[in-house]
Amino acid sequence: LPSFASGTIIGALAMTEPGAGSDLRGIRTTARRDGDHWILNGQKTFISSGIMADLVVVAARTDDTGSSRDFSLFVVERDTPGFERGRKLDKIGLPSQDTAELFFHDARVPAANLLGEQGHGLHYLMAHLPRERLGVMASAIATARAIFETTVAYCKERQAFGGPLTDKQHVRFELAEMATELDVAQAFADQLVVAYNAGRLTAVDAAKGKWYVSELQKRVVDRCLQLHGGYGYMTEYPVARAFMDSRVQTIYGGTTEIMKELIGRDVVA
Q: What is the pLDDT of residue 126?
């Protein structure tokens, strides 16, 4: 932990698999006890920092009872025999973020590298998902507001039909709508942060914030790109890069559809 905090060790969390994304119960990577070691077999994908990570926390199936206690977490070190890194995935956004495939072929992990208790892996992961979703929400609203402010400045400077874009009522209405939406979302985001700090943030409220604010970010950035016209399509402009980078916000950390499912179940319970 001190090394993580100082940045001398890079970590990664390996949950997602080619056939298991939002549905963690679909994890097929297995871990079998063999004396003083666990033998891991399986594949992970879309793993952030997967190439550069010194330690990877891997979610694996340690039982097959059909219950939530079938999964455990393992700390897999860089030079573990049988642990291989695949290619650095080529994404449409976030180019500076290393995202990779990981492979485990009879990877021998010391028994001491079991993280927490056997069979509690799914519980550990689910317990921290609300905080992760809160983080996605915070990133989404910060980025949306930054791009909005950049766009306001652009519209004040950009000349069209004898004056700045802000002389046009339609442009002012677009900016007015986005300003209002961002302020409303900010109020809800602040409410969730206060709840988290007080230990009262629920998984359902975190899901509400995650899907709504990430979808708002996608919508705001798209509208800002439109207001930039052709320049918005050029990667030298921040709005173009934000357009590509923000698209994944409604996918990772739990897709919008999964967030709505969690909320819907709570509503009809």
A: 87
The residue assigned the tokens 């002389």 is: 167
Which residue shows structure tokens 């400077």? 157
State how beta strands 11-14 and 55-61 pair.
parallel
Q: Catalytic site residues?
A: 132
In whole angstroms, give the CA distance from residue 130 to residue 132.
5
Virtual torsion, Cα 58, 140, 251, 209, nearest 10 deg: 90
Dihedral angle, C-alpha 201, 2, 54, 196, nearest 10 °: 10
**Triad 100, 144, 99: Cα angle to 5°:** 5
Query: CA dihedral defined by 250, 255, 258, 259, rounded to 10 degrees?
Result: -40
Which stretch of 49-53, 66-70, 180-184 has the lowest confidence by average pLDDT?
Answer: 66-70
CA atoms within a 13 Å half-sphere pointing along the CA-CB vector of 2: 0
CA 41 to chain CA centroid, Å, is 25
Query: Which residue(s) pair with 12 in the sheet?
Result: 56
Distance CA 56, CA 126 (A): 18
Per residue in 146-179, pLDDT (tens digit) is 999 999 999 999 999 999 999 999 999 999 999 9
Q: Within 13 Å, how many C-alpha atoms sit on residue 53's CB side?
A: 28
Three-state DSSP at 60 gives strand
- 29: buried, middle or exposed (CB in 10 Å: 19+, 13-18, 0-12)? buried
CB under 8 Å to 231, separation ≥6 — which residues? 237
45 vs 39: CA distance, rounded Å: 19
Q: Taking a C-beta distance cutoff of 8 angstroms, is the pair 51, 85 a contact?
A: yes
Task: Tell me the pLDDT band of 23, cut-offs 50, 70 and 90.
Answer: confident
Q: How far apart are CA 201 and CA 174, in angstroms?
A: 33
